[in-house]
Specification:
Layout (H helix, E strand, L loop, with lengths): L5 E4 L9 E4 L10 H15 L3 E5 L5 H8 L4 E6 L2 H14 L4 E5 L2 H6 L9 E6 L8 H10 L3 E12 L11 E9 L2 E8 L3
């Protein structure tokens, strides 16, 4: 018997109303429509022509939404091969040439030595699986990786009760909200 197919709807932009499918995998929880709507209202001034990094891409809801709304490029990093296959299928379905996929863990990606001509990212989506304790390490590697633009905007989604005292000191909170057990934030990065 085939597993249930899950879908999320792209809210606005070029692919408004289109649905993208993703597999049922433990820990995979797409950002809800109301949260995505708020997030992309926050990000509207930054998306046009931006290079975006979607770490822990999962369903692809954030990355496809960013591309739909005018991002120049979106790199989706995802370690689960069945999820990457689903992302690839959605990319082909939408003919999303600005989306690029990488099948590896977020931390492996961030630990990789960068070359001088590698892309720097203007907008980063950071929504790791909950209750796995990876956010602190990921944030520090992200800051130290050399892949952030000087004025990058970073979106964090995490458990509501998580204390974020581990964030790099040059990340300044710009916005925050909660929804149920989820907290979500927008940070501005300042040059050190």
């Amino acid at each position: 018997m085939a597993g249930k197919e899950n879908k999320v709807r792209i809210i606005a932009g070029q692919w408004r109303g289109r649905k993208i499918a993703f597999p049922s995998i433990d820990g995979l929880r797409p950002t809800t429509d109301p949260i995505r709507e708020t997030l992309f209202n926050w990000l509207q001034p930054y998306l046009s022509g931006a290079n975006c990094l979607d770490l822990y891409a999962g369903s692809g809801a954030l990355g496809f939404e960013a591309a739909s709304r005018g991002a120049k490029s979106v790199l989706m990093v995802e370690r689960e091969t069945p999820i990457v296959k689903s992302l690839r299928d959605n990319k082909e379905l939408l003919q999303a040439e600005q989306i690029h996929l990488m099948n590896r863990s977020a931390l492996d990606f961030l630990r990789t030595k960068r070359k001088p001509d590698d892309t720097v990212f203007d907008v980063v989506f950071l929504d790791p699986p909950f209750k796995q304790g990876v956010l602190a390490e990921c944030c520090q590697y992200l800051e130290d990786s050399g892949c952030l633009a000087d004025d990058a905007v970073i979106y964090l989604e995490c458990e509501r009760k998580l204390d974020l005292d581990f964030l790099p000191s040059n990340w300044q909170q710009h916005r925050s909200k909660t929804s149920g057990q989820v907290a979500y934030y927008l940070y501005y990065r300042e040059e050190k």
